[in-house]
Write a structure and sequence with these properties.
- By secondary structure, this protein is an alpha/beta fold.
- It folds into four domains: 59 residues, no CATH class; 165 residues, Response regulator (Rossmann fold); 161 residues, Aldolase class I (TIM Barrel); 182 residues, no CATH class.
- It has 26 helices and 19 strands.
- It has a seven-stranded mixed β-sheet, with helices on both faces. Strands 8-11-12-13-14-15 form a six-stranded parallel β-sheet. A two-stranded antiparallel ribbon has the order 9-10.
- α14 links the parallel β11 and β12.
- α5 crosses α11 and α13 crosses α14.
- The protein is globular.
- The protein starts with a helix and ends with a helix.
């Protein structure tokens, strides 16, 4: 049996290496190859009794606890530091995220505090649970840990810190990242120290004090929070931003299993790595924590510095595809011009995508041909919504007309336009979801569906869900704008419906046809699975998934019957509690998602809001691979 598994593992290893070859990348772009791949994966998954989208690599490869790689062999006088990226509740379904912030910390500390010997424990990559993290730490002599955390990860961090205190009481615990930065008091309650906001210089200064055994220096360290000897919370003044980002060493990617982060490049596919040319964003969108973290100021690296990092990655790891994580790439107009010029002069064969604002692309349309020649293949736009009221609430300071103009200039240049949507914003209605889909369909007309950006060719737009993260403008206004459904920090994640706007709750759904066709029902059930359970199934078994899909099927039939134009969505949610015995928050999530999906497709409309365009069901032509997945979902509910 073990020999057979090893043969399968070796076979799949060869297949994945071929996928990243030049021929493999070209073949993956052909629609029939993608369909054959999906057919094979679904067929094998069905034989093995796996959920419809489970990655074959995860099925055939044993989970690895892995081993810590320190910057150098550990010596007796080394101060050993382990930097930890926690797992997500959505871990088995979430993309593997390169912990770039931890890699920057590791390289900076290694240079500035030579006695510190660092390693990175990526529990998100290897899907490690609490026991496995503690077991891995116990196998090494560890003097300190530094743990980064989003809000959704903080409950795990609390349990991990408790385990470290019990099993390794001498280890110093330092927390950092987004959630500890905006909630330093909460973080300091469990940690020895909290590094707030931009971490390199603060953490290096703290570690010098730790190495010297001198906690008396802590009150002078800017950007640090902690509890003193009497247990009083202390928060030092904020540290100034790093002025010259070029003086930071490149991220310590050698401490990571870098080829395990195998998320494909948007548009093309193939192994990619993230890269950051700037830090910060000048805007004040209400859903984003960036204004708090970066104080609406942007700092740029030099083009030469970014190019040198990309060349080093190519030499070390053979990777030539990159994803710029900057919030607004063309905001640095002169940087973009110099970077692209240097790429062309160096004759670099690279491909890359970036993120940007629609208005920037319109304003800098003359740069797009140069970007394309320098290897850019697509640009992500934070569209969020097509609803004018929503743009006002989220303080986006632009409108949907800019998105349409940006689409036009990208199409004219031959760059792939990619959009990120965010549902459940205040101001959204059932008819608004339908009109947004039709607008996106028009912008996408004549273009291929970019399979490495969206999971599959899909007639529904399911992006992220509006989330009131701590310290955002959205969080401060959420009580007056709708219903908050987050029962714990683990719900505070943009892949979970944790807020439903009052504008949608007050809308009255009216079915737009006598019956819901079987194909539409299958599609909506598939979308239910992706939107509600796929992100949060870390411990779910296949029987549990089947039971939940059957429950969703019963709900959908029930909801369709009640979408008769007589009750607002809020009242239908209350009925679901009474008639289906659903908990309150679950009923609200189900009703909101049904309205979102059926509204997009035109199978329901609003009975109280009128629009200029008639709302009619949208004909669907499903691609083969999606139809196969939908039919497998149907097998689960029969």
């Amino acid at each position: 049996m073990r020999k057979g598994r090893n043969v399968i593992k070796e076979l799949f290893g060869r297949v994945y290496r071929w996928k990243n070859s030049a021929w493999g990348l070209k073949l993956q772009q052909l629609p029939f190859v993608h369909a054959l791949k999906e057919l094979f994966r679904i067929g094998v998954g069905h034989v093995l009794g796996a959920p419809p989208d489970r990655n074959l690599r995860d099925l055939f490869h044993e989970r690895r606890v892995g081993e810590l790689t320190f910057a150098r062999p550990v010596a007796a006088d080394d101060f050993t530091l382990v930097l930890i990226q926690p797992p997500l509740p959505a871990n088995r379904r979430h993309k593997r995220i390169v912990p770039l912030g931890l890699a920057y910390l590791a390289s900076f500390i290694g240079r500035e505090v030579p006695r510190v010997n660092g390693a990175i424990l990526d529990a998100q990559l290897n899907d490690l649970n609490l026991f496995e993290c503690l077991s891995l730490l116990r196998r090494h002599r560890v003097d300190a840990v530094g743990i980064t955390s989003w809000t959704v990860q903080f409950p795990f961090v609390q349990r991990l810190v408790q385990g470290i205190r019990q099993e390794m009481p001498g280890v110093k615990v330092v927390l950092g990242g987004v959630h500890p930065s905006v909630r330093p008091g909460e973080a300091a309650a469990i940690a020895d120290a909290v590094v707030m906001f931009e971490g390199e210089e603060t953490f290096a200064e703290l570690l010098r004090a730790m190495v010297d055994g001198d906690p008396g220096r802590w009150p002078a360290i800017r950007g640090l929070a902690y509890r003193d000897a009497e247990g009083r919370f202390c928060q030092n003044p904020r540290r100034e931003r790093i002025g010259d980002l070029d003086r930071l060493p490149f991220p310590a990617l050698d401490l990571l299993d870098i080829h395990a982060y195998d998320m494909p490049l948007h548009v093309l596919g193939g192994e990619r790595l993230p890269i950051i040319a700037s830090r910060g964003c000048p805007y004040d969108c209400s859903f984003c924590v960036s204004p708090v973290l970066w104080e609406r100021k942007v700092k740029w690296r030099s083009a030469a510095n970014v190019l040198a990092e990309m060349q080093e990655i190519g030499r070390k790891y053979g990777i030539r595809f990159f994803h710029f994580w900057d919030d607004n790439f063309t905001l640095g107009r002169e940087f973009v011009r110099e970077f692209c010029t240097r790429v062309l002069e160096a004759g670099m064969d690279i491909k890359w995508v970036c993120l940007d604002r629609a208005e920037h692309l319109v304003r800098n349309a003359d740069l797009l041909p140069l970007m394309k020649r320098a290897g850019c293949v697509g640009i992500e736009i934070g569209m969020e919504s097509a609803n004018p009221d929503t743009y006002l609430f989220i303080n986006k300071q632009q409108g949907f007309d800019e998105v349409q103009k940006a689409n036009a200039v990208m199409r004219e240049t031959g760059l792939a336009p990619l959009y990120t949507c965010m549902a459940m914003n205040p101001g959204e209605t059932i008819n608004g979801y339908h009109l947004q889909k039709r607008a996106l369909d028009r912008m996408q007309e004549g273009l291929p569906w970019f399979q490495f950006f969206h999971p599959l060719p899909f007639p529904l737009y399911i992006g992220q869900f509006a989330t009131p993260y701590p310290d955002t403008g959205f969080a401060r206004q959420v009580g007056t704008e709708g219903r908050l459904l987050a029962d714990s920090p683990e719900d505070t994640f943009h892949h979970q419906i944790n807020f439903v706007p009052r504008s949608l709750l007050d809308d009255v759904p009216l079915r737009n046809a006598p019956a819901l066709p079987a194909a539409v029902k299958r599609l909506v059930l598939y979308a239910f699975w992706r939107a509600l359970w796929l992100p949060f199934d870390r411990e779910n078994s296949l029987p549990s998934l089947k039971a939940r899909l059957r429950e969703a099927n019963r709900f959908l039939i029930w909801f369709w019957d009640r979408a008769n134009g007589k009750r607002p969505l809020d009242q239908i949610s209350t009925l679901a509690c009474q008639e289906l015995n659903f908990p309150d928050h679950k009923a609200c999530r189900f009703c909101a998602l049904a309205a979102y999906l059926l509204g997009q497709l035109g199978w329901i409309r609003s009975a109280v809001h009128n629009v200029a365009e008639p709302i009619r069901p949208i004909p669907m032509a499903l691609p083969l691979e999606l139809e196969l997945q939908l039919r497998q979902v149907l097998l689960f509910i029969e």
